[in-house]
Amino acid sequence: MSNKIKGKYGEDLAVNYLIKNGYAIVERNYRFSRYGEVDIIALDKDVLCFVEVKTRTSNAFGTALEAVTKQKLDKIRKCALFYIQNSKCRFKRYRIDAVSVFLSGDIGKKEPEINHIKDIEF
Q1: Under a CB-based contact definition with an 8 Å cutoff, are residues 21 and 49 in contact?
Q2: Among 121, 112, 106, 102, residue whose Cα is nearest residue 54
Q3: Could you tell me the pLDDT band of residue 3, with boundaries at 50, 70 and 90?
Q4: Which of 9, 23, 86, 120 sits in a 20 to 30 Å window from 99, CA-based?
Q5: Strands, E, within the chain: which ranges?
Q6: How many Cα neighbours within 13 Å face the side chain of 66?
Q7: Which residues are 99's β-sheet partners?
Q8: What would the pLDDT profile of 75-114 be if each residue is shown by its tens digit?
């Protein structure tokens, strides 16, 4: 399975996880060409959440959450501010979350491990 397919699968799992936990999905793969992309934009009650999803099948190069660097958060923050400024809806509160998805070697046979960090900061 290619990294792109694993990433898409991980995002799908993250979306399902968020929905099961009461989130409403607003948008997926929101792209602001200057700074990149936000994987998922969702509402957690009255809080607009910008969610970075990282999928891994091994921790050989670090955990999924270790891949969410300060530089990556800065790009997400800039995308989030652009989205908020250009959205027809007005949100008083927002945050950046990270969801890590760890897939075992037997995809489909073993449940993936999902870890959700709310309001991630450095």
Answers
A1: no
A2: 102
A3: confident
A4: 86
A5: 24-32, 36-44, 47-56, 93-102, 113-117
A6: 8
A7: 53, 116
A8: 999 999 999 988 887 788 999 999 999 997 665 567 899 9
- In the numeric block, the tokens 């989030």 are attached to 80
Locus of tokens 């970075």:
52
Q: Which residues pair with 28 in a beta bridge?
A: 40
Distances 120 to 29, 68, 107, 108 between C-alpha atoms, Å: 19, 9, 28, 29
What global pTM score does this model have? 0.91
Judge contact between 76 and 38, C-beta under 8 A: yes
Tell the residue number behind the tokens 């800039």, with chain if given: 78
Residue 74: count other Cβ atoms within 10 Å of its Cβ: 12
